[in-house]
Design goal:
- The complex is a heterodimer.
- Chain A is mainly β.
- In chain A, about 0% of the residues lie in helices and about 55% in strands.
- Chain A contains no helices and 11 strands.
- Chain A has strands at about 5, 10-15, 20-25, 30-40, 40-50, 55, 65-70, 75-80, 90-95, 105, 110.
- In chain A, the strands form 2 sheets. In chain A, strands 2, 4, 5, 6, 9, 10 and 11 form a 7-stranded mixed sheet that branches. A 4-stranded antiparallel sheet of chain A has the order 1-3-8-7, with no helix packed on it.
- In chain A, a hairpin with a 7-residue loop joins strand 9 and strand 10 (about 105).
- Chain A starts with a strand and ends with a strand.
- The termini of chain B are far apart.
- In chain B, the strands form 3 sheets. In chain B, strands 2, 5, 6, 10, 11 and 12 form a 6-stranded mixed sheet that branches. A 4-stranded antiparallel sheet of chain B has the order 3-9-8-7, with no helix packed on it. In chain B, strands 1-4 form a two-stranded antiparallel sheet.
- The radius of gyration of chain B is 13 Å and the shape is globular.
- In chain B, about 0% of the residues lie in helices and about 50% in strands.
- Chain B is mainly β.
- The chains are: A mainly beta, B mainly beta.
- The interface between A and B is medium-sized, with 20 and 19 residues.
């Protein structure tokens, strides 16, 4: 099993640009989570999906952030427009139907200049 | 609101020494509790979890944790640390008694001296 796959691993962009982060969950997992990790705020849950449907997006910081899951094997997190304070490591994680464990991807390190 | 506290930001131990990382949580009922490890530049890997039953939980890589309801604690232990254990360790609790939406502590960074 390849595990959770995220791309790109690193992204450097300028303020105001659109950023799209991608995630492929583990096959057969029906939960998908987007987390953000910063020094100041630690690990924060942004949004999670169950069977491709957004369940809880209360952690999405602003309207500039949006997430989609068009099918069971793909999800995107988009920031438009990006700001320097969005700089962080963004993790995608998935969980099987039995739940009880999150499997994290390697993360995308985003730097907004 | 639920929270997780990891009192130690940094801990340094010598290789071969024992280790205990502290975790305290706030939740009225019995929570789902987790320990994750993050190596530099990597994602988080699950070490162990507690849902119910035996309060001493065994995990991967020789780690164990003990749930103590009276102290609202879930401390992680290892009898003999290896240099490869140097990483950041996160305690987490399932929000509102669930296990999908996790609240993470701030983490404890472990350094291992040869």
């Amino acid at each position: 099993d390849a595990g959770v796959i995220q791309s790109p691993r690193h992204e450097v962009t300028e303020m105001g640009q659109e950023v799209t982060l991608r995630c492929k969950p583990i096959s057969g997992h029906d939960y998908l989570f987007w987390y953000r990790q910063t020094m100041m705020r630690g690990l924060e849950l942004l949004i999670y999906f169950n069977n491709n449907v957004p369940i809880d997006d209360s952690g999405m910081p602003e309207d500039r952030f949006s997430a989609k899951m068009p099918n069971a094997s793909f999800s995107t997190l988009k920031i438009q427009p990006s700001e320097p304070r969005d700089s962080a490591v963004y993790f995608c994680a998935s969980s099987p139907p039995s739940g009880r464990a999150l499997y994290f991807g390697p993360g995308t390190r985003l730097t907004v200049l | 609101a639920q929270s997780v506290t990891q009192p130690d930001i940094h801990i340094t131990v010598s290789e071969g020494a024992s280790l205990e990382l502290r975790c305290n949580y706030s939740y009225g009922a019995t929570p789902y509790l987790f320990w994750y490890v993050q190596s530099p530049g990597q994602g988080l890997q699950l070490l162990l979890k507690y849902f119910s039953g035996d309060t001493l939980v065994q995990g991967i890589k020789g780690f164990e944790a003990e749930f103590k309801r009276s102290q609202s604690s879930f401390n992680l232990r290892k009898p003999s640390v290896h240099w490869s254990d140097a990483a950041e360790y996160f305690c987490a609790v399932g929000e509102s008694g669930g296990y999908n939406k996790l609240i993470f502590g701030a983490g404890t960074r472990l350094a291992v001296h040869p």
